[in-house]
């Protein structure tokens, strides 16, 4: 209990380390005064000697200034292009709504910046492919922020599966169920034009995790059942193409099946009692199963339960890698930042997400949307003139 409290406290209040005196630390700029930016980048940067959060841009100058003041950021820009025009920015963090990932990542790359792009990559696989091809052409690093993948607990879960201890994998199930009320009606997650939907927001992790654990891509979408998002008061223009919930069954090679259930706000029991959020990965093999509780934010708390049929059950918890870098209080975002900086500095990161992983993930998200009848999220209208 004491180590849990200490870990949670340090995640929220990480130590600040002196910044490197040589080479000059990387200067990061943030596009948008986004809700996720403090947890995903500003706090992790404190303990990284090679990272300074130098600039933020927002659609309004006042918002940028207030965010910069709150987080001790030197520069505040009105408009995202102004930040990209600053030659001192080395790396851009793009936590804009999903539908703006493509446009602003392309513009950041065009400006010669490395990019940490929020998940899901973009609205379509084609856009994802183009972003990575453009990064390659420019010789820049582009990383989609599937932060959970960088935590040693995920590496351990995969190592157990790959070791053959569970025998041949038969089924994988990922549930990401959040409780009603976490996101209000105006949230970007419920806006189709901004690339909203449960499958985009949560399902992108689920799809990624299933593909990672099996080291395979699906071969088919067997079924996809959406539950439409219904706002409290339904405007005349309301179109039911945002999924509050999505359930999908996927076929994989070797007769493996996988199921996904993701929900941005499951209704309360009897309309009153909030349901407990559920974020789990279950892998069933011929010889046994592995269940990982909280695979997305393992630093906070997680467990990996391995049950061998007719045999033993054990529980593993891995907060700090046995090899390599990291502390028990490093969030998934801190591990991710370490890898990003290593890659930019041309050191081999301990974990990385390759271009094809991001592209394939978007491709299968689109396929699930097609099967569900809701269709892909709208393609960006931005025509990159510099591809
Ligand atoms: N890695 C993770 O754990 C998480 C990742 N995410 C991802 O990060 C991204 C942002 O999520 P989150 O921080 O929750 O989002 P926010 O609702 O905070 O929006 C992010 C920013 O989008 C900007 N924006 C630009 N255009 C619009 C528009 N038309 N409507 C609304 N906002 C706009 C706003 O910038 P401005 O300040 O300029 O007004 C806002 O600050 C998403 O892609 C999401 O999937 C989200 C949460 C967790
Ligand atoms: O990690 C997350 O948890 C909550 C989600 O809505 C968010 O977008 C996601 O990245």
UniProtKB/TrEMBL annotation:
Please list the residue ranges annotated as the Gfo/Idh/MocA-like oxidoreductase N-terminal domain: 28-142
Q: Which residues cross the membrane?
A: none
Entry's Gene Ontology molecular function annotations: D-xylose 1-dehydrogenase (NADP+) activity; nucleotide binding
* Keywords from the UniProt entry: Oxidoreductase
Supply the SUPFAM superfamilies for this chain.
Glyceraldehyde-3-phosphate dehydrogenase-like, C-terminal domain, NAD(P)-binding Rossmann-fold domains
In Pfam terms, one family for this protein is GFO_IDH_MocA
Annotated GFO/IDH/MocA-like oxidoreductase domain ranges read 155-290
Which reaction does this chain catalyze? D-xylose + NADP(+) = D-xylono-1,5-lactone + NADPH + H(+)
Which EC number applies? 1.1.1.179
Give the record's family classification: Belongs to the Gfo/Idh/MocA family.
PANTHER family noted in UniProt: OXIDOREDUCTASES (PTHR22604), TRANS-1,2-DIHYDROBENZENE-1,2-DIOL DEHYDROGENASE (PTHR22604:SF105)
Protein name per the record: D-xylose 1-dehydrogenase (NADP(+), D-xylono-1,5-lactone-forming)
